[in-house]
Amino acid sequence: MTGPDKKKLYPNENLKTVCFINNLPKRSNVEIGDYTYYSDNKKSPERFYDNIEHHYEFLGDKLIIGKFCAIAEGIRFIMNGANHRMDGITTYPFNIFAGGWEKVTPTVEDLPFKGDTVIGNDVWIGQNVTIMPGVHVGDGAIIAANSTVVKNVEPYTIYGGNPAKLIKKRFSDEKIAFLLKLQWWNWDEGKVFDNLEMLVSGDGLDQLMG
């Protein structure tokens, strides 16, 4: 055995509240790694894309999510299409209404653009989290439930609150550096299976570091 079939939308047929979202229909502006799952007890997890808001292809920003991430219900990814022009006296979007206000339609260059939103590998995102445009969440990070993430999150840290702030590091700097070099999420399925006990054990990291 080497684990569940990563190509199945529902890797456990008895648990239809959890799906591997990499197997949803592809979108050109969304990239999702293997084994990353979305869990939703209120609606079908197949509706994961409903949680990506204001995401327009003409802007060019991407949502990139790594491997082995755990994403809970209520997630909201706010993308760059939500931004209003902010360099004038007012931020009111006159141009989206009729009657001649279209004459002040901004160009793409006029709008704030914060780039791609990137979620690393082995990231756990709790319930009802909002992630703002252009945020990068590092590998191994944990985002507490009900948080709003407005700035980058360092690898192997725990963030929480509104706006989300650093609560603590999960491991020492030495251990974090080791894990970032190890990149266990890039192991083949057989190696992951053979090392499951070590990966989930409280002293597994010490064992790996010798």
Task: List the uncertain runs.
Answer: none
Residue share in β-strands: 15-25%
Number of E-state strands: 15
Going by CATH, the homologous superfamily of the largest domain would be Hexapeptide repeat proteins
Q: What structural category do the secondary elements indicate?
A: alpha/beta
Helical fraction = 10-25%
Mean pLDDT across the residues is 95
Along the chain, the helix and strand elements come as EEEEEEEEEEEEEEEHHHH
Strand order of the largest sheet: 1-3-6-9-12-14-15
Work out the helix count.
4
Rg calculated over all Cα atoms: 20 Å
Total number of distinct structural domains = 2
Q: Any idea of the CATH topology of the largest domain?
A: UDP N-Acetylglucosamine Acyltransferase, domain 1
Notable characteristics:
seven-stranded mixed sheet, 2 domains, UDP N-Acetylglucosamine Acyltransferase, domain 1, globular, four-stranded parallel sheet, 20% strand
